[in-house]
Amino acid sequence: MAEDGTHRHRFLLFLLSLLALSTSSAVSRHLPPRSTRSATTATLDVSATLAQALRALSFDPVSSHHPLSHNLSSSAISLPLHSRDFLPSSDGHRHPDYKALTLARLRRDAARVRSIAARAALAVGGVAASDLKPIAEEKALPIAAADSIEGPVVSGTSLGSGEYFSRVGVGRPAKPLYMVLDTGSDVSWIQCAPCADCYQQTDPVFDPSASSSYAPLSCDSSQCRSLDISACRNSSSYSSSSIPAAASGSGGSDGSCLYQVSYGDGSYTVGDFATETVTLGGSDPVSGVAIGCGHDNEGLFVGAAGLLALGGGPLSFPSQISARSFSYCLVDRDSPASSTLDFSAASAPSPSVPAPAVTAPLLRNRRLETFYYVGVTGISVGGEMLSIPPSAFAVDESGAGGVIVDSGTAVTRLQEEAYSALRDAFRAGTASLPSASGVSLFDTCYDLSSRTSVEVPTVGFHFPGGRELRLPAKNYLIPVDGAGTYCLAFAPTSAPLSIIGNVQQQGTRVSFDLEKASVGFSPNKC
């Protein structure tokens, strides 16, 4: 009897195990594990993203105002960031519809990418700035004579595509000015009176004679020698009739430094190179910052008074204040909200800046110290690594190639082989979505007018050590019109250099630890 009981007990355990196995199998067929789903697909909220895009068109640029902010920490500098399309404008210009706004953005973006690629090609080719002639005509340079300053066709990136700005105080007393913030530039500058040729800006043009801290730099100063293009203002090169007196600085003395920065889209700025006091947010004023005081500025977009350079060169703002780290978070380009740019002089990041969720190596290119290169090992779509050779992301011995993180480029550019792999994998994962015709540089688009939300393959950047930055769906499938057309926001480039653009960075705090040579990404930490 005892033996029969043992057999029955074992048989019941066997039946229970079969039942558990079949139940588990059935559940797994209908409800995939959460981790598997999140690794392969992401949800795009079509209704929310389209509604936000349409709200961007109703923004009133005339009535908007952004005062200087107040800083809460004396150990760090923090100031608000705003999307370029929410820069106050005195003329109240608006785009007729969202597609027109998109096309304008993409035109600016294309100009910027061309100039970045041209600058990289010149640097890799070993072409010195002094070997090139300026694109501007001589008649456009009345303050700095054309035979005294010879600039390169490209010595920076297209200011017309600066996509984020902030309110910055310049001078003593501080005059609040809207300035573009750009990780792809090293020379900060503002438009200055008297103007030989200034474009329209929202604020009054800065008058250096009204600032007690304005001081022209001499030609033999280290800051002047660090410029790509410079010249010396002296009596033998200039006649009194061609130089406005105030432009020479205090007393108009000989031997003061002149600068020129020329951009790949034909834009340029020319003027005096000086030191000035700069106030960011509610932080203490920073004195002795070398900036350009531009009296002749051509071809730039209407609105901002100038540019605050955040690049890696010796004249950039982070370098001049000896920042050990800085970070920014870019709000959605269609949002009037703001986030922050933070600098820290201490070895630890600002208390307001969270520790990064994903880190990657910050690399430097000996031929291009301006740009922030990041070590990328691959890209995944739908949780699967793409077959892309490592050379597509690497800087070669000549200094060509690599991947940079750029705040001013909108759409991420990948080498053609890498882009084709990403596009083909994404198309395979969205075969059920209705396709639409391409728009501008986008060749993978969808008609989502009848959808409120869709599931799309995940897209992720991969870094050494198995680290992954998985992008939100709204950072790579974006609206391009008001009718529900969405496009994959990546594009190919024939240039060796790849660029991680700001559409992919939106909503993520990007931190640059200059001391430890790392780039950090913290999603949803704005």
Automatic annotation (TrEMBL):
Residues 1-26 form the signal peptide. It comes from the Eukaryota. The keyword Transport does not apply. The keyword Hydrolase applies. One of its GO terms (biological process) is proteolysis. Residues 164-522 form the Peptidase A1 domain. Keywords: Hydrolase, Protease, Signal. The active site is at D182, D406. GO terms for molecular function: aspartic-type endopeptidase activity. Transmembrane segments: none annotated. Belongs to the peptidase A1 family. This is Eukaryotic aspartyl protease.
